[in-house]
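Good morning,

Attaching, inline, the backbone tokens for the sequence recovery test we're adding to the shared suite. The designed sequence is right after.
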């Protein structure tokens, strides 16, 4: 099994990189595990308090469960991936059954932050994008998908996203084996990664 970690700021183009990478890798041999699925279950916290949770801070994630699931997949065992409900800030009762595959991609803003998780990654990737470009993507996404106003998105960006990015996400660049500028538009970098991964699979 070859485990790839793909990190980068909100709106950097991580999802597009993952999508294009899957298109270039053997069909049926790639599993994507979103870090977002491993947000802490906040069902024991009053609803008013849940609204104050900083989802862009490392403490928002249950790292130990994600690391345990990766170990189990490496051992050839299936795992039950949590499903997180963003509206209620709680985990759903249902889970996603995940079988081990040749390639596992762990994708999320802070995938390279946790030292124990980094130890399990065979390839560490950071998707880089200019702050203005990321903000524009976040505005477009949050207006269309989450029904927010431009003003509320910019306010949240300045209050939470930008400082958390500078404090926790940007410093993770130094752990990356590969940095992909321009996110999903960088086909040359994505092609090189796909070629490298296929070669690693042949050699193991």
């Amino acid at each position: 099994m070859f485990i790839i970690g793909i990190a980068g700021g909100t709106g950097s183009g991580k999802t597009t990189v993952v999508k294009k990478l899957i298109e270039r890798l053997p069909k049926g041999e790639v599993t994507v595990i979103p870090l977002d699925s491993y947000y802490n279950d906040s069902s024991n916290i009053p609803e008013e308090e849940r609204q104050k949770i900083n989802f862009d801070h490392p403490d928002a994630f249950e790292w130990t469960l994600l690391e345990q699931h990766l170990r189990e997949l490496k051992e050839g065992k299936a795992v039950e991936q949590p499903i997180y409900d963003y509206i209620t800030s709680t985990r759903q009762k249902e889970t996603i059954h995940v079988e081990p595959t040749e390639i596992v991609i762990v994708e999320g803003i802070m995938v390279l932050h946790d030292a124990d998780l980094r130890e399990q990654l065979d390839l560490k990737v950071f998707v880089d994008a200019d702050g203005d470009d990321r903000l524009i993507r976040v505005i477009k996404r949050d207006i269309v998908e989450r029904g927010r106003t431009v003003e509320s998105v910019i306010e949240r960006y300045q209050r939470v996203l930008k400082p958390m990015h500078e404090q926790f996400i940007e410093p993770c660049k130094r752990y990356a084996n590969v940095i992909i500028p321009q996110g999903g538009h960088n086909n040359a970098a994505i092609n090189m990664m796909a070629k490298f991964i296929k070669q690693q699979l042949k050699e193991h």
